[in-house]
Input
Amino acid sequence: MRVGVFICHCGSNIAGTVDVARVAAEARKIPGVAFATNYMYTCSEPGQDEIKAAIKRENLDRIVVAACSPRMHENTFRKTIQKAGLNKYFLEMANIREHIAWIGNDKELNTEKAIDAVSMAIAKVMQNKPLHATSFKINKRVLVIGGGVAGMQAALDCADGGLDVVLVEKSPAVGGIMARLDKTFPTIDCSICILGPKMVDVGQHEKIKLFAYSEIEEIKGYIGNYQIKIRKKATYVDWEKCTGCGLCMEKCPSKNSYDYFNFGVAPTKAINIPFPQAIPKKAKIDPNYCRQFLKGKCGVCAKICPTGAINYEMKDEIVTEEVGAIVVATGYGLLDQNILTEYGGTRYPDVISGIQYERLLNASGPTSGHIERPSDHTEPKTIVFVSCAGSRDKSIGVPYCSGFCCMYIAKQAILTKDHIPDSQSYVFYMDIRSPGKGYDEFTRRAQEEYGAQYIRGRVSKIYPKGKKMIVRGADTLLGTQVEIEADLVVLATAAIAAEGAAEMAEKLHISYDTFGFYVESHPKLRPVETNTSGVFLAGACQGPKDIPSSVGQGSAAAAKVLSLFSRDMLESDPAIAQVNTNACVGCLKCLKTCPFQAIVEDTLRSGKKVAKVIETVCAGCGVCTSTCPCGAIQLQHFTDNQLLSEVSAICQM
Amino acid sequence: MSDVGTKELRIVGFLCNWCSYGGADTAGVGRFKQPTDLRIIRVPCSGRVDPLFVVRALLTGADGVLVSGCHPRDCHYSEGNYYARRRLEMLRRLLQFMGIDEKRFHYTWVSASEGQKWQQVVTDFTKQVHELGPLHDKKEKAD
Output
């Protein structure tokens, strides 16, 4: 066996704290190593050429690259050695950058550690076997989870690209947060006017199968072949028959139902269509408020419905769809205002959140676009906006910036002046964060043209005094205390992970961060991929984002799906479990532990019962290998011998 | 000399590829400094870790073994870490019957985004092993 070892400097990233020349010299002493060298940038084209040339020149048959994390460049180097004629599984990487050079300052210790890492990789690569991928067919349908602007964009781009799309939205209508906005910054374009046509397209596109008011129940399978169980929640209205005429909503006597669409700004009816432009425009009963459900008698909607669509007996329904890829666009949530006790939580009706104010501004909102105080329905003259209400506050676990609040506050200040010309807006801010085309100019306009008073400082307390709300805060530029008598206070509550984000991630087997936002494959270069192949991210489920970024990600995710589906067959990872039928005693413990039901019982011609792995189903976790009492089932590329050879390389007494 | 102050000890880490190996990468990218005693072996899933690997490492020269996987309920392979949890918990209780202090073995869960947590885990465990001192020198003396 002739192993070649390549130690990368990575500029000064590795060479700065690891003596790479010494690592190469030590590697040369290890039996089996035919060639070892160090190189400035191994991943560069000349670096890869160097590997290819060495394979030919030195007749190498195994390669170790000691460089960055294999999560970064394993594929790069696998392709390199493949081009030089070696099986790509004859490569091992030693991670001497992330795990060594970057986390220790002591060059001597780092170098020793790097030598160990290289020895382990050499020990493992000498045990490696050539593996060959098999190909399998892919189902060219895509599931999009979430019908906000990011999800709709992904669905439309995929559908226009010729794919069949299954779009699942948990609320009764698509549109997400954007459908609730009045105007968008920095153009002050009407939000629903630009979103509406997209929503109609989603509703009417022949390639898009829309499941509104539905949730993902279960996800099984792997890239190319997923089986999805979707729960169609009971609406108590037969949507096949419902025409969206709205008669039921008009006549419903239960008038105090919580309005999810309007974030509770005003109550709605127990049977309702969320908003005039809703897609699909269908009614739904909220059983928590409906008299028929609470008291067992009413039935007004059933009597009035011209098509007889009401069905109080309706049950949730589970449907199964098969897809080959998944785009996750589950969006974000907003911080519960009750946490902000210094601002009164939700105790004062005239202290509201930014999204609630948005609904007050909106012509299709509960006040038909007239700004009024929730307490007494009078027109406010002094309005105070509090930015960073929860954002950038470590004490409540939201240390990050929510990104879009500075901009929407400026927009709301401008709109307030448009609605009530003799009003005065005040904005308390920590910093004005307005990167983006035309964004900074926009916040300036709010101040200079629309006279919004910007006060740099935080608000310490909000309390009522008569009919007014007193907002007490600091002006850090003047170094004084400020008190403003406000008629209405608007809090820019922090953007947080969507409700149920963690549970969804667990169903998808993707990672999420401490805050519940989904983790992309690489923060710079793979922003819409996840570490689970076949699952892509779009929009604010990955972190707070404004509309253009969400739309961009929606399209990006669609492009990824389209490029994935441009092939008819996918190559399977050959690093899967394999049974040695001579050693297998047929206890079938592996069959019970396999998380994927990838192992079945098989009978050999001799009549012996053994375990058999279904190659396309095995995901390569190796739980079976550590279950098998006789070492008969081995996860390829991570066999007992391979892992123990690594242990032996560093544990010699 | 290890960063901890005494002679460097031998600690072997089995890290699952999807969460903890990524977490260790994240710690590296964030330059979260750690003691240098740990040597990392990458496995696809914590469920791949045969408890006998841990025993083999401890018997042949390691002074401590660390296993880290995805958080329960967030396993890349659905349930591999549940198997790991049961097996490794069992192993922890059995170690004393082999004459090995159970503090030399630790299993935990670190996600790919938890670079800082990884730094903490490595620092704490290294310190814990250093408090116990080398495993094998002691044994040689006893012999």
Q: What stands out?
A: The two ends of chain B are 26 Å apart (CA to CA). The first strand of chain B starts at residue 11 and ends at 16. The CA atoms of residues 47 and 81 of chain B lie 5 Å apart.
